[in-house]
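We treat protein structure as text, and this decision shapes the records that our systems exchange. The remainder of this section carries one protein's record, kept here as part of the documentation:
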Amino acid sequence: MKQSPRSFGALVPLLFGLLSAAAGLASAQATAGADSSKALSESPKVLRYAFRAAETGFDPAQISDSYSKAVAAGIFDAPLEFEYHTRPAKLRPNTLVAMPELSADFKTLTFELKPGIYFDDHEVFGGKKRELVAADYVYSIKRHYDPVWKSPNLYLLENVKILGLSELRKELMAAKKPFDYDRPVEGLQVLSRYKFQVKLGVGDPRFIYQFADAGFLGAVAREVVEKYGVKVMEHPVGTNAWRLAEWRRSSQIVLEKNPNFRELRYAEVAPTDNPALAAHVAALQGRRLPMVDKVVIAIIEEAQPRWLSFVNGEKDVIEEVPADFATIAMPGNKLAPNLAKRGIQMTRYPRADVAFTYFNMEDPVIGGYTPEKIALRRAISLGSDVDKQIRLARRGQAVASQGPIAPGTFGFDPNFKSEMGEFNLAKAKSLLDLYGYVDKDGDGWREQPDGSPLKLEYATQPDSTNRQLNEQWQLTMNALKIRVKFKTAKWPENLKAANAGKLQMWGVSWVATAPDGDTFLALGDGGAKGKANKARFDLPAYNALYAKQKSLPDGPERQAVMAEAAKLLIAYMPYKTEVHRVFTDMAQPWVVGYNRNVFVRDFWKYVDIDTEVLKRQGK
């Protein structure tokens, strides 16, 4: 699950059917298959697009934001991956000879690697080709237990209790000794050069999904980490299709082909309900991956320049068309005629995510588990007009959330309704009055029950979307007579402060990396405080339900336990879940094979640039 800077039942089938709805492909694009032998083989080919928030770095042991993970997924290889076009989502081997062997109790996973996979060249390898071996994955997993790296995703491993690793971590921390990577542990063993095994204390039928997240469990080389130490975030060296060629922090990321990337041919399954995309897929069959030579990613935080860079042909793809331009680009959620005439492709999809505002449960003003503190958070939630937020700030590109679990993942119930989705200003004011949050000094603003000031601070970013969301929050607080000020910082700065528990309130989103709702329930897991759990919520009853659902197979029993956990999050309100977003991507007519799979980060190796179309359009 990962962060990124609202009747939903009708939208759910969109995710489990084909998420793409390509519109208005130009006639020139229809010739991509016929002319592919010449037009699609020319080089150099550059794929250009933009992130809407800055990256933090590219070390799988240290990152959790979706932007950094996207880049890391292109550089590092996880053992598994999701098929690009297949819906519902389907895992397949990536660096493995076959899917892992799983024991009947889901406590033992055995992986066997393909021989002949090599890391990108680096001086640390002494001029020799460095092969990917089982020990690299074992080392990469162990790194999350090393306190030096402060892994934000360690909780995902500790939840399943890899035998011996947590104990080793605690022992060495108590003795103030460095983490011992060479100490054998029962739960993580190299069986041979190409085979390793993971043994768990808690059987989790869905733990296998984690091995498809290269931004988490991608293989790194120990030699590289030991050379660069704390600066390894700046020096990623992996076995996947791309290498980091240039990086200007918070400005531009340039990836180029990894010359050592293994021979891999395009063999994606064509969708059956999108003829235009199916034609592209057919034309690309058998092509060696990746098909473009370079990926240039700009960081453009403001919506207008990001949109204009695409409209002007400076970017080949725009992910998540800014809501500010929804009525221009896709009136009525249909591709605008002027864009269709140009051959622009449109892909619309519900994101398996939830956007929320969290309340720091350790903050003396907004946090706590006593009735008056719960009432304060509930009142703020009830006073938030999410429908207005959707109409104005989000331009209709979202649906209201009723709870933490997102559509497109197991555990989501499209029929579930709760106070989380309720707007009731009168009820909110009554709650505040009942629990003593009243104006005691006659200045028009409420104080805390003990008479001390009631002042809130909301962390935010300096872009137009967040400014509009802030306006909605200001209106909410004004209506409730609660003072609030907004503290603006860049995304990476807010993320760092959030993980350290230094923000009182922050609006952010959480994105699933697999089709399972566990990642959203992890937002409340006490063991994930400072990681997924930005609110630092820690309730024993909730922790027990979270642990219980992890061990259950998918089915009615697990669904019921997940629902109970979600209800506790709603009752205590550490998060005001606001919306599940609906996004639209667009691609230029010369981009061949673009689709959106929300569980595939590194789509770059599956697309091509038709240079003949580029020439005809004078690009």
Summary: The first helix runs from residue 12 to 16. The two ends are 38 Å apart (CA to CA). The chain is about 30% helix and 15% strand.
